[in-house]
Amino acid sequence: MTARQLAGVLAPITTPFDRTTGDVAPVHLRDNVMRLVQDGLDGVVVAGSTGESALLDADEQRRMVAWVRDVLPDQRWLVAGTGAESTRQAVALTRAAAAEGADAVLVRPPSYFSAAVSPASLVDYYRAVAEASPIPVLVYNIPKYTHLPVAAALLQQLAGHANIVGVKDSSGDPKNLAAYRDAVPQWSVLVGSGSLLYAALELGCDGGVLAVACFAARVCAGILAAFRAGDRARAGSLQERLVPLDKEIVAKLGPGGVKAAMDAVGGGLYGGPVRPPLAPVAAADRERVAKLVAA
To answer: Is the alpha carbon torsion for 119, 120, 123, 124 positive or negative?
Structure first.
């Protein structure tokens, strides 16, 4: 499975919580995954930012990987978010995800002491995780949350490690994405912003890990399929439909907005509540999300 290059459109799936207990709801999780795969996605990321990973405990993350592995077809990617505040913790999460059947891990930089993390210590962090990981590692750049942007030059320092195979860029900056593509031509480069999927493909990137795919999977998969088929007009038209969903729901409302959109779409998708201290989406925002999704 992991001998082939990671490519396509993946959804960083939300973590469904039971409305009464607040526990992770495995039935909803499996149902969501099966629906997204049916809609044409190439895989999913468990315990990413959209999955409220910072609010999950280690055992929840491990069990979610196992629950998803049970229902995910063999040729679809299962990636687990395993970045953490300590290298030791990231290694433990990575080994646990591998043991439960993940194909690769997506590792964010540590964020709490971000001001004290030097480029050299960040390189050490990624190399240590990669050395300990039984499965391939992807670097995850999401400065919105970590306050620690990963420079293209740092990727070049990591490119020689055989077990580091790609990067997800959620900076939202097409110039940064282009710099990544140039820096590591041998890696999988995945965009983390649905608004930039078409632009990423034009730059030669391999696909995306897109929160908007949690509720607009067919549109996302359609952009990639049209682009690969050489139908740039259709790919561009679908991209225009995707941009307002990404900018108004994902960018402005975060995981709660994505979950509200999943509830609005229905048809087997379950969004449900976010986990405190994240606040629920306001009623007015929920109405606006429903209108955007319907349109």
So the answer is: negative
Q: What is the mean pLDDT of the chain?
A: 97
What are 82-126's pLDDT values in tens digits?
999 999 999 999 999 999 999 999 999 999 999 999 999 999 999
Strands (E), the chain: 8-12, 43-46, 77-81, 104-107, 137-141, 164-169, 188-191, 207-209
Catalogue all structural domains in the chain, each as residue range(s) with its CATH number.
8-234 (3.20.20.70)
Number of H helices, E strands in the chain: 12, 8
Active-site position among 168, 252, 259, 291 = 168
Please, which residues bridge with residue 164 across strands? 137
Choose among 288, 201, 294: nearest CA to 241: 294
Cα 145 from chain centroid?
A: 13
Give the whole-angstrom CA distance, residue 182 versus residue 173.
Answer: 15
For the record, the structure tokens of 163 come out as 């077990």
Question: For residue 5, which phi and psi values (nearest 5 degrees)?
Answer: -80, 135
Cα(241)–Cα(220) distance, rounded to whole angstroms? 10
User: Is 168 an annotated catalytic residue?
Assistant: yes
As a whole number of angstroms, the distance between CA 254 and CA 214 comes to 12
